[in-house]
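Budget justification aside, the reviewers requested a transparent look at the raw inputs and outputs of the sequence design task funded under Objective 1. We therefore reproduce one unedited record. The lines immediately below are the structure tokens for a 202-residue chain.
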């Protein structure tokens, strides 16, 4: 997984798939990411790749996608948590920010939410000028975003154990389906089951 973004993007460009521009292209990149296997060695290499200087950010921007290493403040009382979130920040909050951690959704719902989020992208360039124009109120008021509830988490700056690792918009669909989640306290099946309950209860 060390150079997974570059490798999949190169394959996609050779196949004529322009990242994020069409639903077919999004599905192509998502399918490629699903085929990436996860081992301890691959996982460590991936984090090392993400921590390269050109990806590191000290300043968070609403609507960008980031990964980072996180150690929750109240981890002793949490049923489970993700130590390597994949997040779109949506609002500043006390001591940090609110973000959508896409890892909490099962793949099908993750794809549906991401497809809806593309509708509020700031432009269709899908480069460093592109970000999502979102906040909690917008997400809570529009039915097409109804899957977002389980993903909203409050992240404290003081409990981040790395800088923000920037994910370019051309890589969003790859990052979305990479096996990069690191849940502690439960497996993904339990997390996904709980997320479905939250969505049904809205």
């Amino acid at each position: 997984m060390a150079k997974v973004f570059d490798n999949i993007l190169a394959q996609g460009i050779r196949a004529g798939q322009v990242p994020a521009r069409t639903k077919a292209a999004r599905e192509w990149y998502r399918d490629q990411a699903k085929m990436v296997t996860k081992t301890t060695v691959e996982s460590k290499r991936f984090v090392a790749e993400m921590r390269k200087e050109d990806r590191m950010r000290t300043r968070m921007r609403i609507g960008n996608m980031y990964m980072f290493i996180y150690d929750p403040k109240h981890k002793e009382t949490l049923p489970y948590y993700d130590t390597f979130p994949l997040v779109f920040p949506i609002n500043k909050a006390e001591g940090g920010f609110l973000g959508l951690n896409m890892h909490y959704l099962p793949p099908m719902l993750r794809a549906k939410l991401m497809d809806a989020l593309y509708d509020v992208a700031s432009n269709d360039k899908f480069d460093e000028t592109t970000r999502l124009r979102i906040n909690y109120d917008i997400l809570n008021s529009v039915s097409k975003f109804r899957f977002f509830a389980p993903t909203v988490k409050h992240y404290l700056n003081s409990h981040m154990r790395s800088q923000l690792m920037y994910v370019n918009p051309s890589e969003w669909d790859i990052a979305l389906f990479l096996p990069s989640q690191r849940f502690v306290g439960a497996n993904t099946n339990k997390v996904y089951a709980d997320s479905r309950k939250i969505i049904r209860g809205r």
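The chain has a mean pLDDT of 92. The longest strand covers residues 86-93. Computational costs for records of this kind are itemized in the attached budget.
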